[in-house]
Write a structure and sequence with these properties.
- This protein has 284 residues and is of the alpha/beta class.
- It has 9 helices and 16 strands.
- Helix 6 links the parallel strand 11 and strand 12.
- Helix content is 29%, strand content 22%.
- The strands form 5 sheets. The protein has an 8-stranded parallel sheet with strand order 13-12-11-10-9-8-7-14.
- It has a single domain, classed as Alpha-Beta Barrel (TIM Barrel).
- Pfam families: PRAI (PF00697).
- Belongs to the TrpF family.
């Protein structure tokens, strides 16, 4: 079935035909099923196996809490949602509760990529929840170690790792220093503003020009950096943020809320429209 999404159409059956699991290794292989993403995913090696671990999406709306939120994301043309499984968060969803199941299943039916956000949970719990809900990826947003991510990757679970950066100007070497050992793993980096003891950027913006310089230099090596821009994005600044930083993927939470933790369908729609008005050449 072909479904209208923004100004493009896509066939939901592609979401099934583009996924496969190697029976010998248990490693999940993913090929871009989203026609909004024109650039192929980087292929990297892990544990002796070639795996394509990049989750393909352009616009992630994080902190989704209801089926209505999901419907708003799909109607606007966003292609990924984040489910927040961190109990202290105002956007928290109990991953084993009925609401999380309803939201997750509605998102799957809408063809949205589903990412579960965890903070300092044990690997066993993350694996259990990811497999139970059939998540497309998990986002590690706490103080998790690369070894924990390795245990998830070995289970065929795609990983997004939040990298907390200062909001000041940085050199490419400084940015790469914050990424550190995570550069050795086939994970996606979500670059967010460091908010101190809080896990999340708290609406603070990164220095987008610094990210553009870093991304440009790093792109000359291997397949280039696999990253998502987060931190203080909203309807008013996302177009400029993408033009300046050259980010192909963005993540927003508070920037599309009418009040703290409450998503606004109107703001989600405006965000998606502005996000795609950025003028960045996807084919580059």
């Amino acid at each position: 079935m072909t479904t209208r999404r923004g100004h493009k159409t896509f066939d939901r059956s592609l979401l099934d035909t583009k996924l496969s699991i190697n029976s010998a290794t248990g490693i999940l292989y993913r090929r871009a099923a989203n026609p909004l993403i024109s650039k192929p995913s980087p292929i990297k090696r892990f544990g002796g196996h070639v795996i394509e671990n990049m989750i393909d999406f352009e616009i992630k709306i994080c902190g989704i809490q209801s089926a209505g939120d999901v419907a708003a994301c799909a109607a606007a043309g966003a292609d990924c949602i984040g489910l927040n499984f961190y109990p202290p968060s105002v956007r928290y969803l109990d991953p084993r509760g009925a609401t999380a199941r309803v939201v997750n299943d509605r998102a799957a039916a809408e063809g949205l990529v589903r990412v579960g956000l965890f903070v300092n949970e044990p690997a066993s719990s993350i694996i259990d929840i990811a497999q139970s809900l059939g998540l497309d990826a998990v986002q590690l947003h706490g103080d998790e170690t690369p070894s924990l991510a390795e245990s998830l990757l070995k289970k065929g679970i795609s990983v997004i790792r939040a990298i907390r950066l200062p909001t000041t100007s940085m050199s490419p070497a400084q940015i790469q220093g914050f990424i550190g050992p995570w550069a050795e793993l086939p994970v996606t980096w979500l670059l967010d503003a460091d908010a101190g003891a809080a896990y999340g950027g708290g609406g603070r913006q990164l220095d987008w020009a610094s990210l553009a310089t870093w991304s440009g230099e790093t792109s000359q090596q291997d397949d280039g950096p696999n990253w998502i821009l987060a931190g203080g994005l909203n309807c008013e600044n996302v177009a400029q943020a993408r033009r300046t930083s050259t980010a192909r993927r963005v993540d927003v939470a508070s920037g599309v809320e009418s009040s703290r933790g409450k998503k606004s369908a109107e703001l989600i729609q405006r965000f998606v429209v502005q996000c795609r008005a950025r003028g960045v050449d996807e084919s580059a």
